[in-house]
Amino acid sequence: MTADLKGKVALVAGGTRGAGRGIAVELGAGGATVYVTGRTTRTQQSEYGRPETIEETAELVTAAGGRGIAVKVDHLVPEEVAALVARIRAEEGKLDILVNDIWGGEHLTEWNKPVWEHSLDKGLRMLRLAIDTHFITAHYALALMIEQPGGLLVEMTDGTADYNATHYRLCPYYDLVKTGTNRMAWAHAKDLAVHSATAVSLSPGWMRSEMMLEIFGVTEENWRDGAKVEPHFVISETPRFTGRAVAALAADPDRNRWTGQSLSSFQLADVYGFNDLDGTRPDCWRYLAEVQETGKPADDTGYR
């Protein structure tokens, strides 16, 4: 399934790698113009320390059939975000889709540590990267998006509202930012309702990002070998699976039926009928609850 997004203008905030890159590429595959922002370029790397760049993502968008535009932006700096939105207004005259995927907190997370043991500086920095950036971006970008009806805001997170409500995410700061983003989308939906715009939060499953492939010492071609390190890696999915979820939402004229909801990549795949790059449809969150958390042997049979 390829969404028809010709003529649409999207901003993927935090599109350097991972889900952001997968989303940008799939929006491009539908024919959209996609502004890709981040802090790592071919000439400057952020403290995140990864090699992926916004220029690479933009080129992948164009290669997929869209028009990718890379813009270096620190989404903690309001003036830079304001300038970005002013540029989109000047060049395109509108914004149809905003994907808030800014994150960059993995290297700050100290797993299984209570708040009194976790680094305070790292924890507060995580909050700024995951909460403040999203609000700053929404402040400026949504003001442009609502100038025409029917816009779409996607707040990216980790874990659906239902899952996060009953699962401690192993670090108080991480738990807050991933739970809070779901609520953020719900709140934005209330404000956007009068503008006939849709706001949702979206969670991928266990995503095979560039970092995750590196951690498990595999590539996308031999990713199943990662199960030798962690057997439950068998349920993982590519960033493009989440990208197809966003593209399907953006192309759906009846997408407002989802507004305010917390969604997963599999949930939307089941409704819209798309698959991951390998032709399967991984149902990660059900797998985690029924297999991993019950102590059963790793086996993705019936979950793809």
Question: Short summary of the structure?
Answer:
With 304 residues, the chain is α/β, with parallel strands linked by helices. Helices cover 42% and strands 12% of the residues.
In CATH terms, what is the architecture? 3-Layer(aba) Sandwich
Q: What is the C-level CATH assignment?
A: Alpha Beta
Proportion of beta-strand residues:
5-15%
The backbone outline, from C-alpha atoms, is: globular
How many H/I helices? 10
Q: How many separate structural domains?
A: 1
Total DSSP E strands: 7
The secondary structure category is: alpha/beta
Quaternary structure classification: single chain
Q: Give the N-to-C terminal Cα separation.
A: 17 Å
- CATH superfamily membership, which one? NAD(P)-binding Rossmann-like Domain
What percent of residues adopt helix (DSSP H or I)? 40-55%
Determine the mean pLDDT. Answer: 97
CATH topology grouping: Rossmann fold
Give start-end ranges of low-pLDDT stretches: none
SSE order: EHEHEHEHEHHEHHEHH
Account of the 3D structure:
There is one protein chain. It is globular, with a radius of gyration of 18 Å. It is an alpha/beta fold and 304 residues long. Helix 4 packs parallel to helix 6 (172-192). It has a single domain, classed as Rossmann fold (3-Layer(aba) Sandwich), CATH 3.40.50. Helix 2 links the parallel strand 2 and strand 3. The model has no long low-confidence stretch (mean pLDDT 97). Strands 3-2-1-4-5-6-7 form a seven-stranded parallel sheet, with helices on both faces. The protein has helices at 18-29, 54-64, 78-92, 120-145, 161-166, 172-192, 210-215, 239-251, 265-272, 284-292; strands at 9-13, 33-38, 67-72, 97-100, 152-156, 198-203, 262-264.
